[in-house]
Design brief:
Layout (H helix, E strand, L loop, with lengths): L1 E5 L4 H13 L5 E5 L4 H8 L1 E3 L15 H8 L5 H14 L9 H14 L3 H22 L10
Parallel strand pairs: 1-2, 1-3
């Protein structure tokens, strides 16, 4: 299936494709267009609009689109639920929700600055979310233990 959203992605518009590709639709294709073209192009390309007001897949109350996808597709993986809190904190400027949220925002803003091509940014961002998932699933209890003294 094709999915479409606003160009120049940041938190949710990188996190959601990662979530969709890994847990909802392995063959998903993601399209970025100017905000005012999302719904028109969605019809033209038979794509699902996401992370934009007026779409089914969007923010709901204090929750972001990543949260909505988890709810809609009944995803229960504990690592995903933890990542959802981090993504929500970063995407809604609620850094108090998770200590990692501010760092995720910083990485996302830096990606957006460094990569002007949305598809290239998505490709790099997918790797970042792979790493975040690996941390949440397998190594979050690991501590930095190097002591130079």
């Amino acid at each position: 299936m094709r999915w479409i959203t606003r160009e120049r992605p940041k938190i949710d518009r990188i996190a959601c494709p990662w979530l969709i590709k890994n847990f909802v639709d392995k063959n998903a294709e993601f399209i970025y267009v100017p905000k005012e073209q999302v719904f028109e192009k969605a019809k033209e390309l038979n794509a699902i609009p996401y992370d934009i007001v007026g779409a089914e897949y969007t923010h709901e109350g204090n929750c972001c689109t990543f949260d909505y996808i988890i709810k809609k597709h009944n995803l229960t993986d504990e690592a995903l639920l933890q990542i959802a809190k981090i993504v929500r904190g970063a995407d809604t400027d609620s850094f108090q929700l998770a200590p990692q949220a501010a760092g995720l925002w910083a990485i996302s803003a830096g990606l957006s600055y460094n990569y002007k091509d949305d598809q290239e940014m998505l490709e790099i961002g997918m790797k970042i979310y792979d790493a975040l998932y690996a941390w949440a699933k397998y190594v979050q209890t690991e501590k930095h233990n190097w002591n130079p003294a």
